[in-house]
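Reopening this one. Same input as before:
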Amino acid sequence: MSDTLQRFLFEHDPIRGELVQLAATWQAVTERHAYPVPLRRVLGELMAAAALLAATLKFEGTLILQLHGNGPVRLIVVECAAGYAMRATAKWDGDIPEGDLRALLGSGRFVINLVADSGRQAYQGVVDLDADSVAAALEHYMATSEQIQTRLWLSCDDTRAAGLLLQKLPERATADADAWPRVAHLAATVRPQELLTLTPQVLLRRLFHEEDLRVFEPRPVCFRCSCSRERVTGMLRMLGRDEVRSVVAERGEVEVHCEFCNRRYAFDAVDSEEIFAAMIAAPAENTRH
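Same output, byte for byte:
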């Protein structure tokens, strides 16, 4: 089963939907960090949710979902960039208890950011984290911040993450008043294992075989980290020459690990001096006499 996002519309009703299934994308995240099992479940669900939400946006940039808490799990971050390139990470302390979202994160905030390709933040939405699941948190956010009726069903295991999203669009004059509750009821019959194992075609037929659907071409989803040596170099420049020299003198090198993909970047004394030598040389090259 490939990693895909499947969009669909109900032909005669103002309702749209998305279905996402992640295998290699999800495994690329879990193989880079040893996430505790309860955290892994929430992280996988948030990844599926991010892909689904990104499919509803007309925006060139990156969607970033963040869960901040004061519980054992302090932070979960999922990014979905253009072309459905995804990455994710989390921070936690000690043992993670089994339980719902509140048990893991305690009280906190749910933050949605849209960052343009230029790096400029285009939008930020923040709501209190007052839900027992990722699906409930997102449904609450969409209802309160965007005033869009949204339903989500999410599932995750060790090798796959998946989700189904429905959104009610502005009603037409001839719309069937019972369409939204009927379709939501049909979708609610989906079982977690079906989300993970059935192909999109089979699942949509199973749930909505009596409805008239328009199904679009599936879109591929992948894992891709945007970290690079150039970006780490920029970060070290911001720290300053004295700070970097101090770390090199103490440890022999500056070592940086990407929090998302766990890639290691190392800068020894020569590398470190070259970073700041380049800063001095650049203005000189632009000087006119």
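So the earlier flakiness isn't reproducible anymore. For the record, The chain has two domains: 4-223, 229-285.
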